[in-house]
Amino acid sequence: MENFPEGKFLATVKIGPKGQIVIPKEVRDMFSLNTGDSLVLMADIGQGIALQPFSYMETLWNAVNQIKGEDREQK
């Protein structure tokens, strides 16, 4: 799929007998994913399935906690 803009990728993956999928090498390289890295799976019946590197959720979690901390300080 050479015609996609840089930073974009489209592929199909198959679910194996144990429910596993293989993330294509190009995508692993794009997101610097390595063996043993954690991903967060998000699913919504209307929106579909998304995978995010755990670092994304960790950054979001830390931002939420920082805002909560600021709210506590203001009270």
Structural key phrases:
alpha+beta; 75 residues; single chain; 2 helices
Task: Describe this protein's structure.
The protein is α+β, with helices and mostly antiparallel strands. It has a domain at 36-74. The protein is 36% helix and 16% strand. It has two helices and two strands. Strands 1-2 form a two-stranded antiparallel ribbon. Strand 1 and strand 2 (48-53) form a beta hairpin. The chain is elongated. The mean pLDDT is 86.
Global structural class: alpha+beta
Q: How do the strands line up in the largest sheet?
A: 1-2
Helical segment tally? 2
Largest sheet: 2 strands, antiparallel
- Alpha-carbon distance between the two ends: 54 Å
Helix content: 25-40%
Overall geometry comes to elongated
What's the overall average pLDDT, rounded?
A: 86
DSSP summary, beta strand count: 2
Report the radius of gyration as a whole number of Å.
17 Å
Low-pLDDT sequence parts:
none
Our estimate of the beta-strand percent is 15-25%
* Element string (H = helix, E = strand): HEEH
